[in-house]
């Protein structure tokens, strides 16, 4: 028979045991809930319920248990809201009670809700900002320039906390850097070949501004999309640009012509230099040979002066006659001039040459000897006539 059925003599709760005895059983959940409720009632200004009836005690126990379950559920729900995930391309800036705490890396994290505030910031996405303006150059000309700035968030803490509106700061800094660089450049440089240098200078100055502001932005690239004169004078500037292109074309043609002429001139100069060096070497060698020949001839002359003198005379006459076709000889002791038509003599000779240069060495020597003998005969005849 169950302990709580009618007629059971042992009307006792088996879980409670005999309260009067020393047997210690499991605790009564209702009693525990009642005690907890009484403590909470005292804390919040209520009264204890120990003097109430049995039914009142049971109702209050049930209400206390529901309160505890509710508190646990709220606590679990509150803790569940503290879990969050940071993506790979993001960083989380944690504010604890409004004060910066840390920067969390990608992954699963937990922070106490309502205490910590987490701002997720994308630090890998390349963002773009465009700007356009009309400004004055160093040579007091007006230009219209449009550019685009590509940037990323390098420091999420500075981006989120230091500046109220980093994009607005970027806009103002871009305009300032662009006007400063354009104001120090000429219009020709801005419109033509100076665009790359202009973009580089603007990027360096803009990054310096953003670093000083503490915006946490990193400039990736600055592109000059368009640079032109105002519409009112665009036609005139188009003519100027065309003239510059013609100038460059003519320079290229001149350079091509120079590239074709200069190597030839250098080759000729090199050839002349080599010829001069060869001529120098030849002249030196000839002079040394003549000097050596003269020394040897001097030695022979000392041995036989008469023979050597005659031989030298014959060699000189041979060299002279080889260069001319007519010879005039002055005869001693008279006014007559001996004329030797060597050209006629060579024409009548069996050699058949039209000039004395065609006569062989032996023939020329014979002819010279005949001339000398003829001269001597005339000199002797003249002396005989004078003696009479």
What do these coordinates show?
The longest helix has 70 residues. A hairpin with a 2-residue loop joins strand 2 and strand 3. This protein starts with 28 loop residues before the first helix and ends with a helix. The chain has 388 residues and is of the alpha+beta class. It has a 3-stranded antiparallel β-sheet. Helix 1 crosses helix 2 and helix 7 packs antiparallel against helix 8.
Concise account of the structure shown:
The chain has 388 residues and is α+β, with helices and mostly antiparallel strands. The protein is built from ten helices and ten strands.
Largest beta sheet, briefly?
3 strands, antiparallel
The total of helices stands at 10
Helix content: 40-55%
Biggest sheet strand line-up: 3-2-5
List the secondary-structure elements in sequence, H or E.
Answer: HHEEEEEEEHHHHEHHEEHH
- Proportion in β-strands: 15-25%
Mean pLDDT: 77
The low-pLDDT segments are: 15-24, 46-58, 350-358
End-to-end separation in angstroms reads 208 Å
Overall radius of gyration:
63 Å
Overall spatial form: rod-shaped
- Number of DSSP strands? 10
Sheet/helix structural class: alpha+beta
Describe the SSE topology.
Blueprint: H1 29-43, H2 54-80, E1 83-86, E2 90-96, E3 99-104, E4 107-110, E5 116-122, E6 127-136, E7 142-153, H3 156-161, H4 166-183, H5 187-191, H6 195-213, E8 217-228, H7 234-303, H8 305-321, E9 326-330, E10 337-341, H9 342-348, H10 361-387
Antiparallel strand pairs: 1-4, 2-3, 2-5, 6-7, 7-8, 9-10
Which key terms come to mind for this protein?
single chain; 388 residues; alpha+beta; 3-stranded antiparallel sheet; 10 helices; 19% strand
């Amino acid at each position: 028979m169950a302990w709580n059925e009618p007629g059971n003599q042992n009307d006792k709760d088996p879980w409670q045991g005999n309260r009067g005895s020393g047997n210690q059983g499991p605790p009564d959940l209702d009693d525990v809930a009642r005690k907890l409720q009484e403590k909470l009632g005292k804390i919040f200004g209520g009264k204890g319920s120990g003097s109430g009836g049995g039914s009142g005690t049971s109702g209050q126990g049930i209400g206390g248990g529901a309160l505890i379950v509710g508190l646990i559920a709220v606590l679990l729900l509150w803790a569940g809201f503290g879990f969050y995930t940071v993506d790979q391309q993001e960083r989380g800036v944690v504010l604890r009670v409004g004060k910066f705490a840390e920067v969390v890396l990608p992954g699963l994290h937990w922070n106490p809700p309502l205490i910590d505030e987490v701002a997720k910031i994308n630090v890998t996405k390349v963002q773009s900002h465009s700007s356009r303006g009309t400004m004055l150059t160093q040579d007091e000309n007006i230009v219209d320039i449009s550019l685009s700035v590509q940037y990323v968030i390098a420091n999420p803490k500075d981006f989120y906390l230091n500046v109220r509106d980093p994009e607005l700061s970027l806009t103002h800094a871009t305009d300032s850097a662009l006007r400063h660089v354009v104001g120090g450049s000429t219009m020709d440089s801005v419109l033509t070949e100076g665009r790359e240098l202009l973009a580089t200078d603007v990027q360096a100055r803009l990054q310096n501004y953003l670093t000083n502001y503490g915006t946490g932005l990193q400039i990736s690239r600055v592109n000059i999309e368009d640079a032109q004169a105002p519409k009112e004078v665009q036609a005139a500037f188009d003519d100027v640009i065309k003239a510059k292109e013609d100038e460059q074309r003519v320079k290229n043609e001149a350079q091509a012509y120079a590239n074709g002429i200069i190597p030839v001139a250098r080759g000729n100069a090199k050839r002349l230099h080599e010829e001069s060096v060869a001529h120098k070497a030849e002249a030196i060698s000839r002079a040394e040979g003549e000097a050596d020949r003269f020394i040897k001839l001097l030695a022979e002359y000392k041995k036989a002066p008469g023979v050597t003198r005659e031989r030298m005379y014959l060699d000189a006459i041979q060299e002279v006659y080889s260069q001319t076709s007519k010879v005039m000889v002055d005869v001693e002791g008279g006014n007559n001039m001996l004329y030797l038509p060597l050209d006629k003599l060579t024409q009548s000779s069996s050699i058949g040459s039209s000039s004395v240069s065609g006569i062989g060495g032996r023939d020329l020597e014979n002819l010279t000897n005949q001339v000398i003998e003829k001269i001597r005969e005339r000199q002797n005849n003249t002396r005989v006539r004078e003696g009479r």
